[in-house]
Design brief:
heterodimer, A: alpha+beta, ATP Synthase, domain 1, five-stranded mixed β-barrel, 2 helices, 7 strands, globular, B: alpha/beta, Helix Hairpins, Pyruvate Kinase, Chain: A, domain 1, 5 helices, 6 strands
C-alpha cells in the first residue's frame, strides 16, 4: 500500500510527522478519509477525532478542536488549534481521554459535532 | 579617617546591588529558556499557517486574477491607521522597551506628517506609561498580557481592531514589537497585519489549479484563515517579545553585575590607599612628636 506523509502541527509544536497509510479527518462539511494520491484539497476542520492508520497498520487517534487541513497528493498537513493523542502507547490513557474530553468541550460550538466526537472518545476508552 | 568608613559602607552597598542583579540575571535566564522554547514551537505553527494561507491566496489569485477579499485589498491612500505596540510590563531590561517606543514614535510621526489619522493601541505597562505621560491618546491598552501571553486574550485584543477594519473604521493595522533573535540580539519588527501583506507570503510557482476548497465558497475558509493568521501573528508577537525581554534583561543584568564587580574593585583599591594614608599620617605624627621631645 502506498504511503503518504502526514504532519499535524499545533501551537505547541509538531505532534505527528510520519508516513501513514490512511487518515480520517473531521472536515467541516463532514468526515472524510484520505489515502495517498488524494486530490488536492483545503478544508476547515471541525471539533473531532483524527484517526490515523500508521505504516505498521496501527491506529492512532488524536482529538482536535478545530483548525485547517491541506491535502496534497503525497502530503497531508493539519494545522490545528489544540490536540491530544488518545491512544499513543503510554499507560496514562485515562488522563489522555479526560484531557481530550475537556479539550473538545472547550472547543465545542456545534453540539452535533461535539456529541459525535465525545461518543468516539468514549467508545475508544471502552474498546481498549 | 571618616573617609575610610564611607568607602567601606559604599563597598558593601555595591556588593548588595551586585547580589540583586546576579539573582535577576539567573531568574531571567531560566525564564528565557522557557519563553524561547515556546516561541520556537509556535514558530513552526506560524510558518505552517502562513504556508497554508499563501497557497489558498495563490489559488484564488489564479482563478480570479486578482484577490478580491477585504483582507487583501490594499488601500493606496490610507486615511486611518492603527498601530499596536508590544512592550514589557517591567523595566530593568536595558534599551528593550525604549527601542519599541522609538520605532512607534517614528511611525506616529511619519503618519502624522502625512496627515493620516493614527490610533494607538498597546500591550505592556512600560509603553502605556510612556504614552500616558506624554498625553498620547490610546485606543486600547492591556497590561499583564506581555508577561504571560495567552492566546485567548491576545486574540480578543486584536479582534477589536479586525472588526474595526471590516467596518471600515481603519485602513491598516501595524504591529510593532521587539522580537527575540538569539541570546544577545533582539530585533525590532514592524509587521503589517491588515491588509495582509502578500510580499511576506511566498508564492511558489506550483500550479494548484485543482485545489479544492471546502466549504466551497472561498470566503468562509479565507475569512477564518485570515483571522487565525492575524490572531496568531499577534500571539506570536507577544511570545517572541517576551523571549526578547528576558534576553535583554539577562544582558542588562549581566552587564550590571560586571560593572558592580569593577566598582567593588576600584573602591577596594581606594579603601586600601586611604588606609595606608591614615597609617602614614599617624606614623609621621608620632615621629614628629618624638623629634619635638628631643
Amino acid at each position: 500500500m502506498k504511503l503518504m506523509k502526514l504532519e499535524i502541527v499545533t501551537p505547541l509544536g509538531v505532534i505527528f510527522d510520519d508516513e501513514v497509510k490512511q487518515v480520517t479527518i473531521p472536515g467541516s462539511e463532514g468526515e472524510f478519509g484520505v489515502l495517498a494520491g488524494h486530490a488536492s484539497l483545503v478544508s476547515l476542520l471541525d471539533t473531532g477525532v483524527i484517526v490515523i492508520e500508521t505504516k505498521e497498520s496501527k491506529e492512532i487517534s488524536v482529538a482536535v478542536n478545530g483548525g485547517y487541513v491541506k491535502v496534497g497528493e503525497d502530503k497531508t498537513l493539519c494545522v490545528v488549534d489544540g490536540a491530544v493523542a488518545l491512544n499513543a502507547e503510554d499507560s496514562n490513557l485515562a488522563n489522555a481521554l479526560a484531557e481530550a474530553k475537556e479539550l473538545l468541550a472547550k472547543a465545542g460550538e456545534s453540539s452535533m459535532a461535539l456529541a459525535s466526537a465525545m461518543a468516539k472518545v468514549d467508545s475508544m476508552g471502552k474498546s481498549i | 579617617m571618616a573617609n575610610l568608613k564611607d568607602i567601606k559602607r559604599k563597598i558593601s552597598s555595591v556588593k548588595g546591588t551586585q547580589k540583586t542583579t546576579r539573582a535577576m540575571k539567573l531568574v531571567s535566564s531560566a525564564k528565557l529558556k522557557r519563553a524561547e522554547e515556546v516561541a520556537k514551537r509556535s514558530k513552526i505553527y506560524a510558518s505552517k499557517l502562513t504556508e497554508l494561507l499563501g497557497e489558498i491566496a495563490q489559488k484564488m489569485n489564479q482563478s480570479e486574477g486578482e484577490i478580491d477579499n477585504i483582507f487583501f485589498r490594499e488601500n493606496k491612500n490610507p486615511s486611518k491607521v492603527d498601530i499596536v505596540f508590544v512592550s514589557a510590563d517591567k523595566g530593568l531590561c536595558g534599551g528593550f522597551n525604549y527601542q519599541t517606543i522609538k520605532r512607534t514614535n517614528k511611525l506616529l510621526k511619519e503618519f502624522g506628517d502625512a496627515g493620516v489619522e493614527v490610533r494607538l493601541s498597546g500591550v505592556g505597562k512600560k509603553g502605556i506609561a510612556f504614552y500616558k505621560y506624554n498625553k498620547q491618546e490610546m485606543l486600547n491598552e492591556i497590561e499583564g498580557l506581555s508577561a504571560s501571553p495567552n492566546y485567548e486574550d491576545a486574540s480578543k485584543f486584536i479582534s477589536l481592531l479586525v472588526e474595526d477594519y471590516i467596518a471600515g473604521k481603519t485602513d491598516k493595522i501595524i504591529l510593532v514589537y521587539n522580537g527575540y533573535v538569539n541570546m544577545i540580539t533582539q530585533e525590532i519588527v514592524e509587521q503589517q497585519l491588515l491588509p495582509v501583506d502578500m510580499s511576506n507570503i511566498k508564492l511558489n510557482a506550483v500550479s494548484l489549479s485543482e485545489l479544492e476548497i471546502e466549504p466551497d465558497d472561498d470566503d468562509t475558509l479565507m475569512d477564518a484563515l485570515v483571522r487565525k493568521y492575524i490572531e496568531y501573528s499577534m500571539y506570536y508577537g507577544l511570545l517572541t517579545s517576551l523571549a526578547g525581554e528576558h534576553s535583554a534583561r539577562m544582558q542588562a543584568m549581566d552587564a550590571a553585575t560586571k560593572n558592580a564587580g569593577e566598582m567593588v574593585q576600584k573602591l577596594t583599591v581606594k579603601y586600601n590607599k586611604a588606609r595606608q594614608e591614615a597609617i602614614t599620617t599617624e606614623l609621621i605624627e608620632i615621629i614628629s612628636g618624638m623629634e619635638s621631645l628631643k
